Structure to design on (283 residues):
């Protein structure tokens, strides 16, 4: 196909902790992810075009593929596959994935594809917020990050195959990142079950609503990465307020063991009280 402009849904995948592995280990992780994603697509009944990016990839799905399958059923099946693999893998080779979904026009130019939608998906999947959410939820296999446009056209409009706005937490890319301030919607998955993250690691700006709930707070740029063991930080509960969180180092993650409050970044939003780890429960 040459010089064709067509609407697509873009699904970006990225492997957590990829750089900590040897080259052969990285190859095995990529092969396993591609196989599991292919199996998930077959189960859901969709097919797409893979554009490899090393530690993950970008899949392009044509506009005739129902977005409800991609937003709800595809992450469910992928999380089931990831969980099954990880149960028999050594802990250091567990495969945990960030998954971002956006949509837009893709320009097919010879063997190359060019698209702002791909660039935007890359920014969301590479953002620190997805890394932080998985680090705070060690039992999760996958974090799903929907662009604001995708969320509005599927979940918020009740066209997502069962997912509801309350299943998501609004987050933003932090200062210094490409696309800083970009709004996305996060949902954690573990073995086919999903939940809204209890930890808002990059808080939504004032005025961002999730259904009838209004969520506000400062946008912060935490410095947690996925290049290391996933921390079992406490989470849970709804935002109880915003402003400086005591004891936290700038850009770091601080858990107040006396109160069960987890805050990320300087002047962070404090989330929950007397909480345990993020709990993944069926819905």
């Amino acid at each position: 196909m040459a010089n064709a402009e067509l609407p697509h849904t873009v699904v970006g995948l990225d492997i957590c902790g990829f750089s900590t592995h040897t080259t052969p280990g990285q190859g095995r992780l990529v092969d396993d992810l591609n196989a599991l994603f292919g199996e998930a697509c077959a189960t859901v009944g969709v097919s797409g075009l893979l554009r490899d990016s090393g530690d993950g990839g970008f899949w392009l799905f044509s506009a005739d593929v129902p977005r409800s399958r991609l937003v709800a059923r595809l992450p469910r099946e992928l999380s089931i596959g990831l969980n099954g693999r990880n149960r028999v893998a050594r802990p250091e080779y567990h495969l945990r994935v960030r998954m971002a979904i956006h949509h837009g026009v893709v320009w097919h130019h010879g063997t190359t594809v060019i698209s702002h939608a791909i660039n935007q998906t890359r920014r969301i999947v590479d953002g620190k917020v997805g890394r932080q959410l998985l680090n705070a939820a060690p039992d999760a296999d996958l974090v799903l990050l929907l662009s604001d446009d995708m969320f509005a056209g599927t979940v918020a409009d009740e066209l997502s195959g069962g997912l509801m706005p309350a299943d998501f937490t609004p987050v933003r890319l932090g200062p210094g990142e490409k696309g800083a301030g970009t709004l996305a919607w996060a949902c954690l998955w573990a073995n086919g079950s999903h939940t809204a993250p209890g930890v808002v690691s990059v808080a939504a700006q004032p005025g961002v609503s999730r259904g009838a709930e209004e969520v506000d707070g400062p946008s912060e740029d935490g410095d947690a990465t996925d290049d290391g063991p996933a921390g079992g930080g406490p989470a849970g509960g709804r935002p109880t307020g915003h402003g400086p969180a005591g004891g936290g180092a700038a850009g770091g993650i601080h858990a107040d063991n006396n109160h069960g409050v987890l805050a990320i970044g300087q002047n962070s939003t404090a989330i929950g009280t007397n909480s345990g780890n993020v709990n993944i429960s069926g819905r």
